[in-house]
Design brief:
The structure holds two protein chains of two kinds.
Chain A (H helix, E strand, L loop, with lengths): L6 H15 L4 H29 L2 E4 L10 E4 L1 H24 L2 H5 L2 H17 L3 H20 L4 H32 L4 H11 L3 H18 L7 H6 L3 H26 L7 H22 L3 H22 L2 H32 L10 H4 L1 H14 L7 H15 L2 H26 L18 H16 L1 H16 L1 H9 L6
Antiparallel strand pairs in A: 1-2
Chain B lengths: L1 H19 L4 H22 L21 H31 L14
Classes of the chains: A mainly alpha, B mainly alpha.
């Protein structure tokens, strides 16, 4: 029992609720939300230290022992994601101070931001399937509000599609939960794992597993990504960067949890399907990224390539690939937020997202240009930046399992990603400078700090990979070994 | 009884799907709402219907009705209520701003 496990959910929830009261006082809201996110980050560092020395930390809510109560479980995988979430959301928040505008700030932007973090952290920490649904909904409802906040024509139009897609996938989630409950009689993840291991994963169970795969694929934009390009290009930059960094990653987390802890008995069916979907996502995402000449579109299609590549690690299902996936997931959260913020700054400066109308930004904004260059290299996995290590291990994992086509697809698409992102660099930053400083539509004042923070993080993750890799290995070990999770939840109690 | 419920759930799902696939925004909201009722009934059916007595300690029953699906449905109803309310407001606002409730017109164009 460890009450600290609950803090990453409680802190943003309570601060968000307090901030609803002080609607008019924007300076207070800003300071308070930064404080809340820093506190959450501090707690997750503390949790990581505890997990490293004492193993997986759990909390049984209300003292009801598993499987009767709701368990909260923090293993190294969730703690790493918690820390990255806090960092990425801090950067998006700092970016929002200067760019989001007074109107949105006065219409509950900061409380909604923190409720979104509550849902994300809750999804990472919960050990109960229905609670996962509830946390997903907390996150999604805040995201519905954030995506439509401001109420421009484009935002409203895209948010209707986004909301409807997510409502339908939530229904499918409930249907899958109902089927699983009928077959196993429990919803505690650890207990589910035990029951399915005892009864064996027969054809019917695999069908339910595929239903879960569909649900989480829709949330993670794994192959079912039709909703993503429209909805991620509608909201303002700070919100789009937050979505790109966090929202799809929660779906990825859920896929990892379900297919390493519960449905891991038939990898030649379920994990092969994940691999095929991952390969298709990478290919289609990369084609989209190359085809478009619009900054926002190129960046949103790059989100999908990342998702597909992380899933290649899950599909190969070896310890090496798993460690690669985890480190690539952390890298992807940071780098997607970074390129969205830089892309958004470019649009903010020039007033257009069409690449053909932008040229020579490096003449007036050299720091922005070089940071974009670093981000571009890191995105395609060039050493010594953060994407390299994950890419090596995932590729090695796919080769170990014999999925050569999957590894090859990953490498081919990283070249396509490099091409698509260099297209932005060459067209946007090189060339003749059209815009002088006076003619620009906005300034970079205050926007460079969060971008710089994220750039430093991607360099540090690459150079200091040795230090981080110990934690990543611990996370991969607990993912590949469901017994650790089950023992931590039950602590020697009798299983009914 | 379970068979009857399954048929009912299937019926609700098909009506909901039909409504969601129509063009009118209000019909889409109603369709989502009808599917949510179907899902709730499905959870109830999956917990098993008519087995044993009340789930109370101290009652002299040999077997109890499973109370968990009902707790799940309660939560699901609350969440669906909130989402449907938000969705309705969003549709109304879109109708006001964009000036149409036809989903065909909501595609957008290249020049924005």
């Amino acid at each position: 029992m460890n009450n600290i496990v609950l803090l990453p959910i409680i802190i943003p929830l309570i601060t968000g609720m307090i901030m609803v009261i002080f609607r008019k006082n924007i300076r207070f809201q800003r300071a308070f939300s930064v404080f809340a996110i820093l506190a959450t980050g501090g707690v997750s560092v503390f949790l990581m230290a505890q997990i490293r020395t004492k193993g997986i930390q759990t909390l049984q809510l209300g003292g009801w022992q598993a499987p009767f109560g709701i368990s909260m479980v923090a293993d190294m995988f969730s703690a790493l994601l918690l820390l990255t979430t806090s960092f990425v959301s801090l950067c998006c928040l700092l970016f929002a101070f200067r760019s989001i505008g007074k109107e949105r700030e006065a219409s509950y932007f900061y409380p909604m931001f923190l409720f979104l973090i509550t849902g994300v952290n809750g999804s990472f920490l919960t050990g109960d399937l229905f609670n996962l649904y509830v946390c997903f909904e907390v996150m999604l409802i805040s995201s519905y509000v954030l995506i439509s906040l401001g109420g421009t024509k484009k935002q409203l139009r895209e948010s209707i599609k986004y909301v409807l897609t997510n409502i339908v996938s939530s229904f499918l989630f409930l249907v899958a939960i109902a089927y699983l409950y009928a077959m196993t009689g429990t919803l505690n993840l650890a207990h589910l794992s035990v029951r399915i291991a005892e009864a064996g994963q027969d054809g019917l169970m695999t069908t339910v597993a595929i239903l879960f795969l569909i649900v989480f694929s829709m949330k993670a934009a794994l192959f079912l990504f039709f909703w993503l390009p429209g909805s991620y290009s509608a909201p303002p930059t700070a919100i789009a960067a937050l979505f790109a960094g966090l929202l799809t990653k929660v779906g990825i987390y859920a896929l990892f949890r379900m297919f390493t802890l519960v449905f891991y008995h038939e990898p030649q069916i379920t994990h092969l399907i994940i691999g095929v979907l991952g390969a298709l996502t990478m290919l289609l995402g990369a084609i989209g990224a190359i085809a478009y000449w619009d900054i926002k579109k190129i960046l949103t299609y790059n989100v999908m390539v990342g998702v597909g590549f992380i899933m290649a690690g899950l599909a190969s299902f070896t310890p090496v690939a798993m460690a690669g996936s985890i480190s690539y997931l952390i890298h992807d959260m940071i780098i997607k937020a970074l390129i969205f913020l830089i892309g958004g700054t470019m649009i903010h400066l020039t007033g257009t997202s069409k690449l053909k109308e932008i040229s020579g930004l490096i003449g007036t904004h050299s720091y922005l240009g070089w940071m974009f260059f670093i981000a571009a290299l890191s995105l395609s996995g060039i050493p010594p930046l953060s994407g390299f290590l994950g890419k090596v291990f995932i590729t090695q994992g796919t080769f170990e399992t014999g999925y050569y086509w999957l590894g090859a697809m990953g490498l081919i698409t990283s070249l396509m990603v490099l091409f698509s992102i260099m297209k932005i660099f060459m067209n946007g930053f090189w060339g003749e400078t059209y815009l002088s400083q006076e003619m620009e539509k906005g300034t970079t004042k205050g926007l460079m700090f969060p971008i710089g923070l994220l750039t430093v993080a991607t360099i540090a993750l690459g150079v200091g990979a040795e230090g981080i890799f110990e934690y990543v290995n611990l996370a991969a070990e607990s993912l590949m070994n469901p017994k650790l999770y089950i023992e931590a939840v039950f602590r020697g109690n009798v299983m009914p | 009884m379970e068979t009857l419920m399954s048929i009912l759930v299937g019926l609700l799902f098909s009506i909901g799907t039909y409504l969601i696939l129509s063009k009118n925004l209000l019909r889409i909201v109603l369709g989502a709402s009808i599917i949510s009722h179907g899902v709730n009934l499905l959870i109830l059916t999956m917990g098993g219907l008519k087995k044993g007595g009340l789930p109370l300690l101290g009652e002299n029953n040999l077997s109890y009705t499973d109370a968990l699906p009902q707790a799940l449905i309660l939560t699901a109803i609350v969440i669906n209520f909130a989402v449907t309310a938000l969705f309705l407001v969003l549709c109304y606002r879109t109708y006001q701003v964009v000036g149409t409730d036809d989903s065909e017109q909501l595609r957008g164009n290249e020049d924005e």
